[in-house]
Amino acid sequence: MEATQNLKNKIGLKEKLSYACGDAGNNVIFASMSSFLVFYYTDVVKVSAVTIGSIMLISRVLDGFVDILMGVIIDKTKSKYGKARPWLLRMCIPFAIAAVLMFSVPDVSNYWQYVYIFVTYNIVNIIYTSINLPYGVLTSLMTQDQYERSVLTIFRMIFSVICNIGISMLTLPVVAMFGNDRKAWSLTYALFGAVAVVLFLITFFNTKERVGSATDEVKKEVPVKVGVKALFKNKYWGILTIQGLLNGANLTIMMGMNVYYAQYVLGNAGLVSVLTFAMMLPCLAGMFVLAPIVKKFGKRNVSLAGIVIMVIGYLIVMIAPTNLTLVLIGTAIRGLGFTPVQTLSFAMLADTVEYGEWKAGVRTEGLIYSAQSFGGKAGGGLGSGVIGWILGMGGYIGGAAAQSAGAVGAIKALFIFIPIAFVVVQFVILIPYKLDKEYSQVLEDLEKRKTVNN
Fold it and tell me: Distance between CA 334 and CA 315 in Å, rounded?
């Protein structure tokens, strides 16, 4: 009966908007990391692109252990606010402070700069895990309705895209307003961090956790060994974890290369916001029509169609990489295709919580999201690493007025060719995903178990 109650318990508009604020809060910091952090390190602090790429990859892999630990902590969390929401309240201020420190590299020797970068970058990632992972888990705790979860995810991604556009358009002008030096970057992220705190608090105070387990496991802690064993019985979680890794790498490369492509291929650094806007505006528009399309065709099929559209966008850019008109058209088409690929992955992951409970008899939202989060972060680290390594191989010199032909070729490869490879593999990975068709039966079986247990 309770499962049926959860299905009928629709989420109001205020709660959906409040939930979406959390993703905006995340992206005030994370979008900056994706779009400007490598540029800040190479062109403002002027450290080696190869070294930065290696630091980021190593850090993201190490951070995977933090993801698993945080997943276990979430599953063991018991408070009057639930198991996910408390972490938004606890970690929002530390997250903002850590972001300021990350964009405040001191003017010391290279060795100590590398140490500082490694430490602060990892601190941000650890805190990001402790707030973003519970935020992701919250989707599966607010409702079990597949469509409602899709709508919640669309709301969060709309806010995410708006935030990405805002960060892209405002960062460099705000830095310039504060003096366009190292201190200006610190002040900019102090401002952005304060905004992030407010957004997280809105989510905390205006959302509610409603969903429990269909078995008595909710009344006792699930041993980590049992939870991990259950995780690897969940084939759909495995598919989405690999897909998340590839998507994380691709997103990091897409966002991180805009500033380089604008400055050194198109010849105008000011075009970085235009490139981001060209991608994000169609992405935003697509989200407003995504829900009925998903309802008709299913999340997996719409995601596959999105990947095909992305490839078409890349091919258009490939025709004339220095033609601004074609670059913007291709980027816009790529953004339209990216909408379902990025947005629906979160809703699909939420559905694997019930599938895992149905398959193994235990419900472990934290572990499911933590392991998949590790995939996404490792993908982000891989993307940052690829940027640094390929720029280094091409002979890129940070802060130079002009780059060599090899460096420009590396920038073009990162903007066009390498992302194509990532999305094609994503297409192949998603083909075996069939949970859209099986989910109703999974919920029906779980409801029967709850009736028996009660």
Answer: 10
